[in-house]
Amino acid sequence: MSNAALGFPKSILNNYQEFNENDFGRVIEEHKERYVVQNELGSFSAEITGQLRFTATDRSSFPVVGDWVRMQIFDEDKALVHEVVHRERALTRQAVGRDAEVQYIASNIDTAFIVEAVNRDFNLNRMERYMTLCYDAGIHPVFILNKVDLISEDRLEEMKFEIENRLFGMDLICTSATSTEGMSKLKDTIEEAKTYCFLGSSGVGKSSLINVLFDDQLLATGAIGDGNDRGKHTTTSRSLHVLPSGGILIDNPGTREVGMVSDNDGLSTTYAYIEDIAEDCRFSNCTHVHEKGCAVIEAVNNEEISEEAYQNYLRLGREQAHFESTVAERRKKGKDLARVIKDVKRLKNR
Ligand SMILES: Nc1nc2c(ncn2[C@@H]2O[C@H](COP(=O)(O)OP(=O)(O)OP(=O)(O)O)[C@@H](O)[C@H]2O)c(=O)[nH]1
Ligand SMILES: [Zn+2]
């Protein structure tokens, strides 16, 4: 598997002129304290160097699936990871129990397929949440409406209409992993050397769709590629595979945990049409909740903006604001703690 097929960004070499492509690899599996890293030369069971462990300022210094790392190969199939050299467009979540710490889940993702099933799962609020999360990260969202074999064509048309009305211009693919309807369209959107992942609630059919994309070869043959971990991937929670058609897929990015943690402008991309209207609000700091002369409220009353979209917009905005205030608080606590430590040191040195 060439580095190019694994999505190698050539720009890495600009910053590391004394190295060559083989000094870099992509993290394809993450285990406890161990990684599998792949490049042109093969795949390697890798650990991080002591140096990286000791200089790490927080958990974000450690590799995650999808990262490009600089490594040193030794023996035939082992490597030491020196540093993460390329991580953008990452999925993150808020760490459990540690307020506001952002944890990386997977990185260098070009497109996320956001899957909902037509039967019980269909929910446009959730869809907007996933979209926002993708826009925040710089990941292109594509909506997949799966299990279309379960409903009539008329009902499907209604749903498409509803989606188009609420999520203007969103890329939408209707599929059935069972009847394989729409699967060729899905396959056609997947490009070589680009990285994809599937997001969506449990049971919507993510694994089933992935199996069809792999022509049902994935589980039968073990991990794709010439890994020394063949067959072990079933025990891995998260892994990266190259599809038969050439795209790269990050499996199982743990979407149930994916939250809304970013302070980037995802919301204003998802709700660009609301923010356009908001330019006409009387007050520039309008919260669009109760103000007189609020153009957004007026548009909701005129049914130019759907009530549901408006409520969801406010809800997601509140969540984001809450997150930002916890981050600010944490930073302050961190500073306070640093001051205490300094004071203690000063006392000791007296
Ligand atoms: N009728 C129908 N059933 C489907 C389709 N796709 C998946 N299923 C079924 O839905 C169930 C859940 O599918 P999975 O592929 O395991 O769903 P998932 O999203 O991977 O679920 P998690 O692994 O829990 O996140 C299985 O029983 C599948 O056979 C479809 O297009 N049509
Ligand atoms: Zn307003």
TrEMBL record:
Protein localization: Cytoplasm
Keyword annotations from UniProtKB, A to Z: Cytoplasm, GTP-binding, Hydrolase, Metal-binding, Nucleotide-binding, Ribosome biogenesis, RNA-binding, rRNA-binding, Zinc
Keyword Protein biosynthesis assigned: no
CDD domains documented for this protein: YjeQ_EngC (cd01854)
Ranges where the CP-type G domain occurs: 99-258
InterPro entries, per database record: G_CP_dom (IPR030378), NA-bd_OB-fold (IPR012340), P-loop_NTPase (IPR027417), Ribosome_biogen_GTPase_RsgA (IPR004881), RsgA_GTPase_dom (IPR010914)
Subunit (UniProt): Monomer. Associates with 30S ribosomal subunit, binds 16S rRNA.
Family, as annotated: Belongs to the TRAFAC class YlqF/YawG GTPase family. RsgA subfamily.
Known role: One of several proteins that assist in the late maturation steps of the functional core of the 30S ribosomal subunit. Helps release RbfA from mature subunits. May play a role in the assembly of ribosomal proteins into the subunit. Circularly permuted GTPase that catalyzes slow GTP hydrolysis, GTPase activity is stimulated by the 30S ribosomal subunit.
The protein's name: Small ribosomal subunit biogenesis GTPase RsgA
Gene: rsgA
